[in-house]
Amino acid sequence: MKAMMKAKSLKVLIEATKKFLAISSRKPCHQYIRLEFDSERHTVAAVGVDGCRLSVEHSIAEYIDESFVAYIKPSIPKFKKEDTAIIELTDKRCTIQIGETITGYLQPVDEYLDYKNTLDEIEKNPVQYRIGFNPN
User: Fold this and answer.
1) Residues with Cβ < 8 Å from 57, sequence gap 6 or more?
2) Distance (Å, rounded) from C-alpha 95 to C-alpha 28?
């Protein structure tokens, strides 16, 4: 499974979601940024969650051979303005190649938060507010 996107776009995704990652090791998979690659729409969604806060950022990819999900740590090597990031997922390892630098991440085995179903449930049951006003 392979995807290509501008290195600058990948950095923007990482910078936007890294503040929402868990610091403790209670759920190790929440220390990773989840990258969801959609081959039909050529989009990438970066998800960061710490159990209480959630960040979902979207970007466009140049090439995605098939839809897949990869987990990365919130750091990438330095790159030039015009560089392309090549993200590959093989077995239990995700590699990111930018220029001549390759960074690899072992994929966590824990279950990640199912944020899509949670958001769907909230949309089905709208929150009702009761606002009171006391003129005195």
Assistant:
1) 12, 13, 16, 17, 45, 46
2) 19
Q: How many CB atoms lie within 10 A of CB 129?
A: 5
Q: Which helix (H) or strand (E) holds 126?
A: none
CA distance 118 to 65: 29
CA distance 55 to 126: 21
Q: Which two tokens stand for residue 105?
A: 């991440």
- Residue 123 corresponds to which amino acid? E
Residue 32 token pair: 């990773």
Q: Count Cβ atoms below 10 Å from residue 75 Cβ, excluding itself.
A: 10
> What pTM does this model have?
0.81
CA 52, 11, 107: angle at the middle one, nearest 5?
Answer: 60
E-state strands within 22-117: 33-38, 43-49, 54-60, 63-64, 68-72, 84-90, 93-98, 101-106
Blockwise average pLDDT, block size 10, the chain, 136 residues: 94 91 79 93 91 87 94 87 92 91 88 71 66 64
Return the structure tokens found at 25.
Answer: 């090791």
Q: Are strands 43-49 and 33-38 parallel, antiparallel or unpaired?
A: antiparallel
